[in-house]
Structures
1.
Amino acid sequence: MTAPPASPVLAAVAPPPPRARPQWPCPPGVLCVRPLPGETTASYLARLAAAYHLTTAQLLDGHHITVTGSQQQPPTAELHLNHEAVRRLSCFTQIPQAHLAYALPGLHPPPPSLADGPHPRAHARWQALDPALQPLPACTSCTAHRTRSRTAAPPAWTHPAPGSPRLIICIRHQQAAGDPRLPAPLDTRPAPEIIHTHRRAHRASPASMSWATAITTRWYDHRQHLHQRWRQRLETLLDANPHIPHTPASPTLTCRNLITYPETLTLAKTLDQLPPHPLTHTHETVFLHHLAHRLHLHRLAPADHDLLWQRLR
Ligand SMILES: [Zn+2]
């Protein structure tokens, strides 16, 4: 069996337990800006600085934290802190270091270049992120709730949990995003099947999700099998989300993961039911009939070059 096309999206690892929401008291005089689960350090510092009407650079300078690297902004870059800088951040926010490290995956471990010497000095360094690894815009309602500032909260940028689809989905507020080129998440209420699907996402194995993502991405790009349904879902979301930019990347691309998600999960769960050995011709026919039924298609007749065949044979 041939491996699917390289997919940095889905690692074949067991999904971790859901992140708990740590709580801590907020002392008087401290602006309570809490990190979101999986938030990047650069995103959290930008929101924290904004609460005090500062820039990230001013906030770090005020705590005598030396910054190196070309200053950038989330989501294209992450800000790495050494232990002394994390200690100062913890003192300032009154949030224990363990809680900060739990919520902010970028805090651990610090890069070797930021290791503390015998006389530790607070140090931070900007590092550009590969587009495939950039964080996604978090739910705006959750972000506002965790900022508690009288000023408008800057957007928060978070990483999906390891082993999960490359999507940020808030079931409570029905917002979702699947591409860092989106400035904000989408309101998915006009397409409720996306949230409905996400409630069942844990039922598919990561390996099958990786295959299914590669297959549906190919179908989407080549306008195969489900083109009309996906086109209609995209138009529905565009109507409900006028903030989606049309440049530099088309919404057809920036919304792809989200548009195909319901069918990707259905395909993944169907692939999980396959036997470990290659299918006979009869079994292939039965499987395609069953898959078409699960996808609500009258028939499914993939061409010889369809990526689905690589998984079946
Ligand atoms: Zn939310």
2.
Amino acid sequence: MEILRHVVLLVHLVGFAILFGAWVVEAAARRFQATRLMDLGLLIAFVAGVVLCAPFGRDYDFNWAKIGIKLGILVVIGALAGISRSRAKKNTPLPTWTFWLIGALILANAALAVIWR
Ligand code: HEM
């Protein structure tokens, strides 16, 4: 069961890597827009994150406050990314600071995950 949990954690990290990697690519290309690849990374991180909340046969002591805040931040990232993509399609893009906010929120979630035990 512990191996299975580690596999799900790996999938969660792959989702994070896709999400943050896609964001860095857009920042480096100076496009400052959310992309479908970011949606995919977010979806993978979300599904694997929810599965990670299962006890996996052991009596885990979850930090539910941390998990709740991470979930809330993920919803805000998803909303910002969705609005950013639909506004870009209508040629009325969101201001650039919203793109930087998305990156900061992704990093905040990763920092919460590793720093707040
Ligand atoms: C952008 C969104 C997210 C990012 C960047 C992220 C990042 C991470 C990282 C880097 C870890 C590894 C921590 C470690 O093992 O030291 C982790 C673990 C974990 N994540 Fe996430 N996560 C996100 C969203 C979520 C969501 C939405 C949930 C639950 C609903 C969640 C639940 C968990 C759980 C249960 C663990 C393993 C146990 C723990 O360290 O708390 N994550 N996450």
